[in-house]
Amino acid sequence: MAVIPLNTHDHQPIRLCRSEIVSITEIAWETFVLRLKEPALSQNAHPGQFVEIRVPRCADILWRRPFSIHDADGEAETIDILFHAVGRGTEALKHLQVGDVLDLLGPLGNSFHIDDHLTEAIIVAGGLGIAPFKLFLRKTRQRNVPTTLFYGVGKKEQLCRLDDFQPSAQVRVSSVDGSVGSRGMVTDLLIEHLRTVPDMERKCLFVCGPTPMLRKVQEIAAQFQIKAQVSVETIMACGFGVCVGCAVPMRFPDPGKKEYFLACKEGPVFNMEEIIIHD
């Protein structure tokens, strides 16, 4: 499979912003959408990019926290951040109020590449891995690219509202416990779909989610000989390559050779065939 020339945005300015909270909405169990008034970022954000947010009112949390840009509305001049309240930093975010101001850095990283000749964009998202794809769907809709979304969660309570993704995509949902959609893994739905798909050359997988899911999708992409791009979820403390804490091992044609790229700088989106996925 050919290597996809990913979007790097090398000349895009990184801004240090003071962004006012427009709304904060719980859309699933302990999962929130934070909407920020941000004129500059809303005009320039691309699907797959992220921002680094300084956690408010927590002086002992030194490093910013990375969050995918969930959506960007240039007309409303807003960006959305999707997060799950699981630790001290995200717990602090969920208690913020409309009108509070956040200190953030962005847009950071590269983005998914949507080829002009795609006949289908196939999204595979697991859990909070759905985060980059509302903005992604905004872009595929603008370009009239048919899109299918496979979205897997553990249980019904974790499912983010589907009206954010329909009718921009055909949506198929799975849950581990069978409480919503099909029972089982989202990769089972993907395999079922790919078995019916002709012309793999003009289709591409766009993937984000937990590591076990990424490993399985990597195997599936190789089996069906379909191109795939993956957004990796890892700790990115600085966001622009200074701390060197987000090294990702890469696979190259020479047997046994590895190279480490930085998720925040060369990523977070990579060609799936080039990345070594492990715990």
Helix proportion range: 10-25%
Determine the mean pLDDT.
Answer: 90
Globular, elongated, flat, extended or rod-shaped: what is the shape?
Answer: globular
Number of helices: 5
Q: Count the strands?
A: 15
Rg, Cα atoms, Å: 18 Å
Ranges with pLDDT <50 over ≥5 residues? none
Instruction: Supply the helix-strand structural class.
Output: alpha/beta
Terminal Cα span: 25 Å
User: Beta-strand percentage?
Assistant: 25-35%
Strand order of the largest sheet: 10-9-8-7-11-12-15
Describe the structure.
The chain has helices at residues 39-44, 88-94, 133-142, 186-194, 211-224; strands spanning 15-28, 31-37, 50-53, 65-73, 78-84, 101-108, 120-126, 147-153, 170-175, 182-183, 203-208, 227-231, 247-251, 258-262, 269-271. Strands 10-9-8-7-11-12-15 form a seven-stranded mixed sheet, sandwiched between helices. A hairpin with a 6-residue loop joins strand 13 and strand 14 (258-262). The model has no long low-confidence stretch (mean pLDDT 90). Helix 4 packs parallel to helix 5 (211-224). The protein has 279 residues and is α/β, with parallel strands linked by helices. The protein starts with 14 loop residues before the first strand and ends in an 8-residue tail after the last strand.
